[in-house]
């Protein structure tokens, strides 16, 4: 598969109860492709964190996952408020999530750090007032 | 030890769609990202969180089961979701520390 296989998802920004649907679906799809379980775990956790971020901060967005022979690549695009200070956002424990989100067990300031921890490459392009694009790669 | 085996230790089953799963360790936590970052696959995850997102976290982190401490219970729709997603959920009146002590003794054997 030289071009790879791509799965695309809309992330619904209004609903915490459905957050994670795309990640769980990706997990299933990767399992069907026979990908190593540890790789699947890393990809699906990184993607879930990204999904939750889009629900908390950006009213949803788009996610795509491409599987090639070398890697699994995840691209998350939102048109939310953007990230003012990326180095601060990358620090474990830093969060701007509101209290109602924290009461659900989110907002620990671990989202972006976990995404970095579980992937081999991650880039974040964010412009305040325009949106954020996160690209992550897990090598096979 | 399997998740099924926990019933003999006095845990109650809220959802047990995959009771044959092997338990390899224990993680305690209520912050979901923290749990996803630190809990290993095949661990029992002890928590007092009871919202629907625990099902996704258990699925993605691939924990062997969720154990709800301190008598926390779940609404039926969450239990139904757990059953349909293959996520084991047990309950106990004990606090997290005492549950972990019980599991420690059992996992040692």
From TrEMBL, chain A:
SUPFAM superfamilies: ATPase domain of HSP90 chaperone/DNA topoisomerase II/histidine kinase. It holds the Pfam family HATPase_c_2. Gene3D superfamilies: Histidine kinase-like ATPase, C-terminal domain. Residues 20-137 form the Histidine kinase/HSP90-like ATPase domain. InterPro entries: HATPase_C_sf, HATPase_dom. This is Anti-sigma regulatory factor. The lineage of its organism: Bacteria, Bacillati, Bacillota, Clostridia, Eubacteriales.
């Amino acid at each position: 598969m030289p071009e790879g296989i791509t799965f695309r998802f809309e992330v619904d920004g209004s609903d915490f109860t459905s957050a994670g649907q795309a990640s769980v679906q990706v997990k299933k799809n990767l399992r069907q492709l026979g990908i190593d379980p540890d790789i699947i775990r890393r990809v699906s956790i990184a993607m879930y964190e990204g999904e939750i971020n889009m629900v908390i901060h950006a009213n949803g967005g788009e996610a795509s996952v491409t599987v090639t022979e070398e890697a699994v690549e995840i691209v998350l695009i939102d048109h939310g408020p953007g990230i003012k200070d990326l180095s601060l956002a990358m620090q474990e424990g830093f969060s701007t999530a509101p209290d109602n989100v924290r009461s659900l067990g989110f907002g620990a300031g671990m989202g972006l750090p976990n995404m970095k921890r579980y992937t081999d490459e991650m880039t974040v392009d964010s412009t305040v007032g325009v949106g954020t694009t996160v690209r992550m790669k897990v090598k096979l | 030890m399997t998740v099924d085996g926990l019933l003999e230790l006095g845990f109650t089953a809220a959802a047990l769609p995959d009771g044959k799963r092997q338990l390899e360790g224990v993680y305690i936590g209520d912050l979901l990202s923290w749990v996803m970052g630190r809990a290993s696959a095949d661990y029992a995850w002890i928590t007092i969180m009871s919202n629907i997102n625990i099902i996704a976290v258990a699925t993605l982190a691939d924990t062997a089961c969720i154990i709800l401490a301190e008598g926390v219970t779940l609404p039926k729709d969450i239990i139904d979701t757990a059953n349909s997603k293959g996520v084991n959920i047990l309950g106990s009146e004990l606090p997290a520390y005492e549950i972990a002590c019980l599991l420690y003794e059992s996992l040692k054997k």
